[in-house]
């Protein structure tokens, strides 16, 4: 979420984490949703740059990228927990 201020980053992170939580049928706290959304945005942007040599622009595009990244993180978390 490069170029966004801290407040917008936290708000978008919370929204992205909440959407990913609903998509992946999970239950997380608000703080965990914010963390998932922000880290998901980092993962999603890295992945999009790796695959497409670009990333989605604007608030809506970054929200989609963050949701995809957060879903990947939730999936990886479940995968790691199931192995232990």
């Amino acid at each position: 979420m490069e170029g966004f201020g801290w407040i917008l980053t936290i708000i978008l992170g919370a929204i992205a984490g909440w959407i990913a939580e609903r998509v992946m049928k999970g239950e997380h706290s608000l703080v965990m949703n914010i963390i998932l959304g922000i880290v998901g945005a980092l993962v999603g942007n890295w992945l999009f740059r790796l695959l497409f040599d670009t990333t989605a622009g604007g608030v809506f595009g970054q929200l989609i990228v963050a949701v995809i990244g957060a879903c990947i993180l939730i999936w990886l978390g479940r995968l790691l927990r199931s192995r232990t």
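The chain has one domain: 6-83. The mean pLDDT is 88.
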